[in-house]
TrEMBL record, chain A:
PROSITE patterns: ABC_TM1. It is found in: Cell membrane. Keywords: Cell membrane, Membrane, Peptide transport, Protein transport, Transmembrane, Transmembrane helix, Transport. This is Peptide/nickel transport system permease protein. GO terms for cellular component: plasma membrane. The keyword Calcium does not apply. Its main location: membrane. It comes from the Bacteria. The lineage of its organism: Bacteria, Pseudomonadati, Pseudomonadota, Alphaproteobacteria, Hyphomicrobiales. It comes from Kaistia soli DSM 19436. Coiled coil: none annotated.
TrEMBL record, chain B:
It catalyses: Ni(2+)(out) + ATP + H2O = Ni(2+)(in) + ADP + phosphate + H(+). This is Nickel import system ATP-binding protein NikD. Belongs to the ABC transporter superfamily. It comes from Kaistia soli DSM 19436. It is an enzyme of class 7 (translocase). Its EC number is 7.2.2.11. It is found in: Cell inner membrane. One of its GO terms (cellular component) is plasma membrane. The lineage of its organism: Bacteria, Pseudomonadati, Pseudomonadota, Alphaproteobacteria, Hyphomicrobiales. Residues 14-264 form the ABC transporter domain. InterPro entries: AAA+_ATPase, ABC_Ni/Peptide_Import, ABC_transporter-like_ATP-bd, ABC_transporter-like_CS, Oligopep_ABC_C, P-loop_NTPase.
TrEMBL record, chain C:
Gene3D superfamilies: P-loop containing nucleotide triphosphate hydrolases. This is ABC transporter. The keyword Transport applies. GO terms for biological process: transmembrane transport. One of its GO terms (molecular function) is ATP hydrolysis activity. PANTHER family: TRANSPORT ATP-BINDING PROTEIN (PTHR43776). The keyword Transport applies. Pfam families: ABC_tran (PF00005). Residues 2-249 form the ABC transporter domain.
């Protein structure tokens, strides 16, 4: 109850309320959208190609006669599932390295963090591009590429947050009690680091989603006919003059999703950031 | 110790009547109805716990508090009225000339990247213009530094603040405050960040300067015992209200306001034993507590119903001794 | 109970880092069972480092520390853990010394979970409630989080947390310094009651001469990492022999 009431007090403007509603709606559609689709998103029907939005095909059809709305709904699941897969793996790997680094300290800590620094020196998209082209172009390759290039962000952030927590007096109190390390991580570090990590995750959702769509768009990610949003735009490029809806629908979907999660992330930052709030 | 007796003949140097201070956001009144007068050459103390409003009141009166303003009442300094409208700007002009200010934190109140000598000569220049030329201003600054007890002032003149200890830095802040030859020095917890030995030296320096140069001093502190031994009269703030103005000699001797009495019973002093220490139950209320009546009613041992319903008596005549207790405790 | 003999500690000098704590030189401190011993010194005197050495929160480079007659250097891992239930500490800063994400009952129960695994959950809760009551907090306080409490109340929680394991030695590291005057007196009264009612040995670390005079039987005066004077509090704090102690006493209001 306490948590729910606190969450409900977060949104302060209508923009934020809208973003939350849209964010939830997108997540919901990603979950159940595949059961609502009017047409098979993969079914090619050249007789129905390049049809403008109508009562039958609400968002029209693409160059191969596939229903754009159906593909969009299927794509929501594909795009968001890939995004969350990347985020979850990256958070687990990054935070494990970061927290361990802060606990161990000394030379190991220094080495790991310099490694992360060097890693971050490469632009993530370029790194992902190289990685994806080495693995061969597919959605899985794009996901691995992003995991590969994204983890240092979380390693550095979680190390910084953990080091900050470890320097506080309540950790000294815990040491005076003889609290073992695993308990310190679970009961002291993670609950106190949660806010900062959540903010970063919320902000990264849109960034990772854009990266996946971007990689698909330039052809190293998901391949047509997979209904991934970035790939759908890439596919629709050649029909812009006579089938504008084909690129517009996934474009708007990407735009709305990215903006919604960014607004939510900014809101979380404002509400949860320890620097803007006295403990 | 002769200077501790409150001078009674002079006209007040600073007189504030029924002054209230409110926050800019939400217009919440934080300090209400404070009236008091400080006379020339007087050493005056303001005591209060955290949240009493002592720092907010003085900083707002000096025009230094950006998020608060003087919401009502009247302020007179040195025979000049300061209107409530546009108060902060007026007050800040005085701050450059007739009022010196020593803030709490000696570590952040000096410019770390400017040589000490430059900071002091600049203060002299800002207060007096440049009538005496660079060389004599430099001499004046070194003289000031010697006066506040900085060893080898000519050498320190060219050094940076971080080469000195907290006590030395507070002396430098003090020198800057004195550069304008003010009539009034306001020191807000000037020694809280310092060690005991340094603390006493800095306080004695301030008192010494006051005696020698006819300087009035308002010393703000949470330390009642320090004030009791250093100043003539003490104003006691609690929950944004002025509860008591008491001659320091009366504390622990005659009847005073119940809060002042309770506060004195809390503090360990040289003479007290454990049996003499009596804590006040409950927590201090913050400034702007927004209730009717006396802020101390919730913790006062003498409390009656009327304490919570009657408006607090005001020190309307800016009398030199005052108690806001409606039961007449400490009222002369 | 506590016997520090010739304990020394030096801090590695690091470039561009100002180290405010002094190195310790030849510290000899002995605390007997049931004593209330004060360690008096100004900031940078090394008194907090001594507190951390006594509670084994920090290491030392020279000398020896015997606790109840045994050198702690000879402790096994198990004994080291058991030591933590014999010696507890309360810090100065009541804002930082409680886990912000644990309820105050949770903080108190943490001690019991670690050191009294024989107790059931219900017993732990009951014991935590009794402890919170003992330090003067109301029954419903347990479910709330540290940020909902004032500094004085948090310090009460920190005290309850420290005495939950029924330590024989309690180290109080400037426990009053960041509290309001009227709250200081409340906590001081709590200490006096605790000393009377519980079988406690206390090391009280403070810069406040007057509080040490009130509370302590014996006192060690520290300056710049060394003990400069020791003796019964009433002797040392009324007739100091050391020049520094005399200056300190003269300066105190």
């Amino acid at each position: 109850m306490r948590v729910l009431r606190r969450l409900l007090s977060f949104p302060k403007t209508n923009v934020e309320r809208t973003a939350i509603v849209l964010g939830c709606l997108i997540l919901l559609l990603a979950l159940v959208g595949a059961f609502l689709v009017p047409f098979d998103p993969m079914k090619i029907d050249f007789r129905a190609k390049l049809q403008a939005p109508s009562m039958l095909h609400w968002l029209g059809t693409d160059g191969s006669g596939r229903d754009v709305l159906s593909r969009l709904l299927y794509g929501a699941r594909l795009t968001l599932a890939s995004t969350f897969a990347v985020i979850i793996v990256v958070v687990i790997i990054g935070c494990t390295i970061g927290i361990a680094s802060a606990f161990v300290g000394g030379a190991v800590d220094n080495m790991l963090m310099r490694l992360a620094d060097i890693w971050l020196g490469f632009p993530p998209l370029i790194l992902a591009l190289g990685f994806a082209s080495a693995l061969g172009a597919s959605l899985e390759a794009a996901i691995w590429a992003l995991i590969f290039s994204w983890w240092p962000n979380y390693a550095r952030l979680s190390r910084m947050v953990t080091a900050d927590i470890l320097s506080q007096k309540f950790i000294a109190s815990a040491d005076a009690l003889g609290v073992p390390t695993h308990r310190k991580v679970l009961h002291y570090v993670i609950p106190n680091a949660m806010d900062v990590m959540l903010i970063q995750i919320a902000l990264d959702i849109s960034a990772v989603m854009l990266a996946i769509s971007g990689l698909s768009f330039i052809g190293v990610g998901a391949q047509i006919p997979a209904p991934e949003w970035g790939a759908m735009i890439a596919d629709g490029r050649s029909y812009v003059s006579n089938g504008w809806w084909i690129v517009l629908a996934p474009g708007i979907a990407i735009f709305i999703t990215a903006v919604s999660f960014n607004v939510i992330g900014d809101m979380l930052r404002r509400e949860l950031d320890p620097t803007s709030r006295r403990r | 110790m002769a200077s501790l007796a409150p001078p009674t003949t002079d006209r007040p140097l600073l007189e504030i009547r029924d002054v209230s201070v409110a926050l800019r956001t939400g217009n919440r009144t934080m300090v209400a109805g404070v009236s008091l007068a400080v006379r020339p050459r007087e050493v005056f103390g303001i005591v209060g716990e955290s949240g009493s409003g002592k720092t907010l009141l003085t900083r707002t009166l000096l025009g230094l508090q950006d998020d608060a303003y003087v919401a009502g009442g009247s302020v007179r300094f040195n025979g000049q009225d300061l209107p409530v409208n546009g108060y902060a700007n007026k007050a800040r002009k005085l701050l450059g000339h007739s009022i010196g200010f020593v803030p709490q934190d000696p570590f952040s109140s000096l410019n770390p990247s400017m040589r000490i000598g430059k900071q002091i000569t600049e203060a002299i220049y800002l207060a007096k213009g440049w009538p005496m030329g660079a060389e004599r201003t430099r001499e004046a600054a070194i003289g000031l530094m010697a006066e506040v007890g900085i060893p080898e002032p000519a050498l320190a003149f060219n050094q940076f603040p971080d080469q000195f200890s907290g006590g030395m830095r507070q002396r430098m802040v003090f020198a800057i405050a004195l550069a304008q030859d003010p009539k009034l020095l306001v020191a807000d917890e000037p020694t809280t960040a310092l060690d005991a030995i340094t603390q006493r030296r800095v306080i004695e320096l301030i008192l010494d300067r006051s005696r020698k140069h006819d300087l009035a001093v308002i010393l703000i502190s949470h330390n009642l015992e320090l004030l009791r031994q250093s100043v003539g009269r003490i104003a006691v703030l609690y929950g944004g209200q002025l509860l008591n103005i008491v001659p320091s000699g009366d504390i622990g001797q005659s009847t005073i306001h119940p809060y002042t009495e309770a506060l004195f019973d809390c503090i360990p002093t040289r003479e007290k034993t454990l049996a003499d220490i009596r804590s006040i139950p409950g927590e201090p209320v913050g400034a702007g507590f927004g209730l009717k009546g006396c802020a101390f009613a919730s913790r006062c041992p003498y409390v009656v119903t009327a304490c919570r319903t009657t408006d607090l008596p005001q020190n309307a005549g800016t009398a030199s001794i005052f108690s806001a207790c409606i039961l007449g405790r400490g009222v002369h | 109970m506590v016997e520090l003999k010739g304990v020394a500690k030096s801090f590695a000098r690091r470039l561009f880092v100002q180290n405010r704590s002094f190195a310790l030189r030849d510290i000899n401190i002995a605390v007997g069972r049931g004593e209330v011993v004060g360690i008096l010194g100004e900031s940078g005197s090394g008194k907090s480092t001594v507190a951390n050495i006594i509670t084994c929160l920090t290491s030392y480079d020279g000398g020896s520390y015997r606790f109840k007659g045994r050198d702690i250097a000879s402790y096994t891992r198990k004994e080291r853990f058991a030591f933590k239930s014999d010696v507890q500490i309360v810090f100065q800063d009541p804002y930082g010394s409680l886990n912000p994400r644990a309820t105050v009952r949770g903080s108190v129960m943490e001690s019991l979970i670690l050191h009294r695994p024989d107790l059931g959950r219900r017993e732990r809760i009951e014991r935590a409630n009794a402890l919170l009551e003992e330090v003067g907090l109301s029954a419903d306080a347990g479910d709330r989080y540290p940020h909902e409490f004032s500094g004085g109340q948090r310090q009460r929680v920190a005290i309850a947390r420290a005495i939950a394991v029924e330590p024989e030695l309690l180290v109080l590291d400037e426990p009053l310094s960041s509290l309001d005057v009227s709250i200081q007196a409340q906590i001081l009264e709590l200490f006096v009651r605790m000393i009377r009612e519980r079988d406690l040995t206390i090391v009280f670390i403070s810069h406040d001469v007057n509080v040490v005079r009130l509370l302590c039987d014996r006192v060690y005066v520290m300056n710049q990492g060394a003990v400069v004077e020791e003796g019964f509090a009433r002797d040392v704090l009324n007739h100091p022999q050391n020049e520094y102690t005399a200056r300190l006493l003269d300066a105190v209001y």
